[in-house]
Amino acid sequence: MFTPEGPSLRELAVQALSSVERGYDLLAPKFDHTPFRTPDRVLEAVAKALTPLGPFEDGLDLCCGTGAGTGVLAQVCRHSVTGVDFSAGMLEIARRQPPPDGPDITYVRADARALPFGPGFDLVVSFGAFGHFLPRELPGLFGQVHAVLRPGGAFAFPVLAPPRPSSPGYWMLLGFDAVMRVRNALWRPPFVMYYRAFRLGAVLAELARAGFSVELSALPEFGERGDGSPRARLVVARRGQPAAGTVNS
């Protein structure tokens, strides 16, 4: 799962015993050589699905890490792309990446739970970051995204179908989450990363409570499960347009 350029077992242990921010600062130089980076096929599928929903002017990559998702935004946004993350180390690596052709790209260090922006974006995306937020934090997180979108803007992110209990992947993720809960019960500072805490039904309900209208579409590149349901979906949550005769704040 790790390339030879990836972190050693010792480095991973040090990172796992750090805070989330410090752990990613340490991991940043080798992050793109780990399985934690969003695979290119996911990024390409999302870009393909977003293209007919545009055009978009200004995009925000929420919890951008080393900048993999900003390439998606660069394909579908015409004016500007902003990446935001709270790890200075990850942002340093992102800024070193060759900029793709297209809009201007800026990286900003900030906490996704307290975004330093007004309603200046038409599209917000996020890839692989939601495991770092506890379920009780989702209302505040989604409220922040809603606040930085212009009326009619979209919040989009991919979700993968959870593995079946009969598959090795199910038990691997269950075991990982169990180990992290024990670690956080015994060690401070906590490292919040839970793969099974981001449940689609609860997420859709919280998005609706935050004021979004939500649509789901299959990402056909990943095929279907045995019951015919898609293996991967794109969630597109829209901020509503203000009613006629009202002034948007």
Task: Offer a quick outline of the entry.
The protein has helices at 9-16, 20-27, 40-50, 70-76, 88-96, 138-148, 168-186, 200-209; strands spanning 56-62, 77-85, 104-109, 121-126, 149-160, 212-218, 232-239. It is an alpha/beta fold and 249 residues long.
Describe the protein's topology.
Layout: H1 9-16, H2 20-27, H3 40-50, E1 56-62, H4 70-76, E2 77-85, H5 88-96, E3 104-109, E4 121-126, H6 138-148, E5 149-160, H7 168-186, H8 200-209, E6 212-218, E7 232-239
Helix pairs in contact: 1-2, 3-4, 6-8
Enzyme class: transferase
GO molecular function: methyltransferase activity
Protein name: Class I SAM-dependent methyltransferase
Strand order of the largest sheet: 3-2-1-4-5-7-6
Content-based structural category:
alpha/beta
Q: What is the percentage of strand-forming residues?
A: 15-25%
Element pattern in H and E: HHHEHEHEEHEHHEE
- Cα radius of gyration in angstroms: 18 Å
Which geometry do the CA atoms define? globular
CATH superfamily, by name, is Vaccinia Virus protein VP39
Number of strands: 7
CATH class: Alpha Beta
Structural overview:
With 249 residues, this protein is an alpha/beta fold. The chain has one domain (39-239): Rossmann fold. It has helices at residues 9-16, 20-27, 40-50, 70-76, 88-96, 138-148, 168-186, 200-209; strands at 56-62, 77-85, 104-109, 121-126, 149-160, 212-218, 232-239. Strands 3-2-1-4-5-7-6 form a 7-stranded mixed sheet, with helices on both faces. Helix 1 runs antiparallel to helix 2 (20-27), helix 3 runs parallel beside helix 4 (70-76) and helix 6 (138-148) crosses helix 8.
